[in-house]
Design a protein that fits this description.
The protein is α/β, with parallel strands linked by helices. The chain folds into three domains: 3-49 and 215-302 and 440-494, FAD/NAD(P)-binding domain; 87-212, no CATH class; 307-429, no CATH class. 35% of the residues lie in helices and 18% in strands. β1, α1 (11-22) and β2 form a beta-alpha-beta unit. It is globular, with a radius of gyration of 22 Å. The two termini are 19 Å apart. The relative contact order is 0.18.
Length: 498
């Protein structure tokens, strides 16, 4: 029986582990933290449950098919609840625009801002549908191991204008400045700069329309628990609190995984769900890495995503008399300038935009009765910035809560009864991401598909990667699809039937 060791229990690692176990491998999954889930591990404080990271579930079939592989039914393990509207986006004055999957509803919203953009939105949907068909349906689970794989799709990428940025692409169809922001924020959800990320990422809007936006009953952690349970039913072993310190390599093959407690797990193949740059830099000896996975590439030549500052807080009252819905984007007066400052990582900007998550509107189980659970997330520069987070974290937290109290949540600070805060150090120290990034390698055209770190190592034949830092990229659909890519690669190597 093939011994497969999976490093990391994010959605990519769990999905890969389930796929390999369903194929008959003896799977051992190791996770540094005491809880499974990686970025998706829940945060529990004083009777409140907060989603640690991902909150938006799209393309639910990517979960359902894992259970089908094992002869089970997803609905026997977890429940997804629809979210409508998908998002409500606020401008700096508190005026808002919201959208869902219904064209007429969105058209009525657009009419409030600029009626002339309704026809532009219709044309944008047609254009993004073509991008979605190529970029997600056809390519999201296709391996890009050889430059010829990229050359085959290059004509299509040119035809779809992938050389444009998301913002440039949307601006062809939408004229109102605020509506342009509303239809270009999506790359930020996967660590991308809308003014740099390829227009291929405009497909995210269409992906949401195709399958809807969902929330897991019991929080995103309920999906983690469901996958852990499934893996264990398939005979997989899950070892929590086990930090990996080294991947042993002999020749061009990984032979074992060394743990911090001194244990050694012999392996026939290794699938790494850890941050790809950090894995190469810290787990694999330099003599086993070519220039493509060298210190030079990951320390000097790679552009990284931003990091995140998140305040999780619970209140002793409900806030249903405010304009906030389940998913809220609150934009600063500055858009391009703020995003530029965040990605340049020269310092912490004085202003901020926020994603505010209020899951108890959809699922009250995340808080005690009569209470509300929130998290407020601000994109911030990664640790390449000189920001002293030991000093700045309390001040930044106060700025965010003061703003929310003044503009959206009256009396907020006097009603907070549970709280937890994370800053870029959490991503570096607990989630092991290089520079404390929130989403690993930045999704640009020249860091996508073949140009992105590969799902199979170029240097070690039986080492594979899943998760945000490899193809196709960050976001729940992306990391789940990366597990499908790895399964396809291994199936071809082993001669398995599809």
């Amino acid at each position: 029986m093939t011994r497969t060791v999976v490093i990391g229990s994010g959605f990519g690692g769990l999905a890969a582990a389930v796929r390999m176990a369903a194929r008959g491998d003896a799977v051992t999954l190791v996770e540094k933290q005491p809880k499974a889930g990686g970025r998706a591990a829940p945060v529990e404080v004083d009777g409140f449950r907060f989603d640690g990271g991902p909150t938006v579930i799209t393309a639910p079939f990517l979960f359902e098919e894992l259970f089908e592989l094992a002869g089970r039914r997803f609905e026997d393990y977890a429940t997804l609840l629809p979210v409508d509207p998908f998002y409500r986006i606020f401008d700096a004055r508190g005026r808002w625009f919201e959208y869902n999957g219904n064209f007429d509803d969105v058209a009525r919203q657009i009419e409030r801002w600029n009626p002339a953009d309704i026809e532009g939105y219709r044309r944008f949907l047609e254009a993004s549908r073509a991008i979605f068909q190529k970029g997600f349906v056809e390519l999201a689970d296709a391996p890009f191991l050889h430059v010829t794989d990229m050359l085959k799709v290059a004509p299509d990428l040119l035809r779809l204008q992938s050389y444009r940025s998301v913002y440039g692409f949307v601006s062809k169809y939408i004229q109102d400045p605020f509506l342009r922001r509303c239809f270009t924020f999506h790359p930020l959800l996967i660590g991308g700069n809308p003014f740099v990320a390829s227009s291929i990422y405009a497909m995210i809007h269409h992906l949401e329309r195709e399958w809807g936006v969902w929330y897991a009953k019991g929080g995103t952690g309920a999906l983690v628990d469901a996958l852990v349970r499934l893996l264990q039913e398939l005979g997989g072993e899950v070892r929590l609190g086990c930090e990996v310190t080294r991947i042993r390599v002999r020749g061009r093959r990984a032979t074992a995984v060394e743990l911090a407690d001194g244990d050694v797990l012999e392996a026939d193949r290794v699938i790494c769900n850890g941050d790809v740059p950090q894995a190469y830099l810290s787990l694999i000896d330099p003599e086993h890495r070519s220039w493509r996975n060298s210190d030079l590439r990951y320390r000097k030549l790679t552009a990284y995503s931003m990091s995140l500052f998140v305040v999780y807080f619970g209140t002793d009252r409900l806030y249903r008399d405010t304009p906030l819905v389940h998913h809220n984007i609150i934009l600063s007066e500055r858009y391009k300038g703020l995003i530029r400052d965040i990605f340049r990582a020269k310092g912490l900007p004085r202003d901020f935009s926020l994603y505010v998550h209020v899951p108890t509107i959809t699922d009250p189980s995340g808080a005690p009765p009569g209470h509300e659970a929130f998290y407020a997330l601000s994109p911030v520069p990664h640790l390449g910035s000189p920001t002293d987070w030991e000093r700045m974290a309390p001040k930044y937290r106060e700025l965010i809560l003061e703003f929310l109290e003044r503009e959206y949540l009256p009396g907020l600070r006097s009603h907070i009864v549970a709280e937890h805060t994370v800053d870029p150090r959490h991503f570096r120290d607990n989630l092991n991401t290089y520079l404390g990034t929130g989403f690993s390698v930045q999704p640009t055209l020249w860091q996508s598909a073949w140009f992105r770190p590969h799902n199979r190592s170029e240097d070690i034949d039986n080492l594979y990667f899943v998760g945000a830092g490899t193809h196709p990229g960050a976001g729940v659909p992306g990391v789940m699809s990366s597990a499908k890519v790895v399964e396809r690669i291994i199936a071809e190597e082993e001669g398995w039937q599809a």
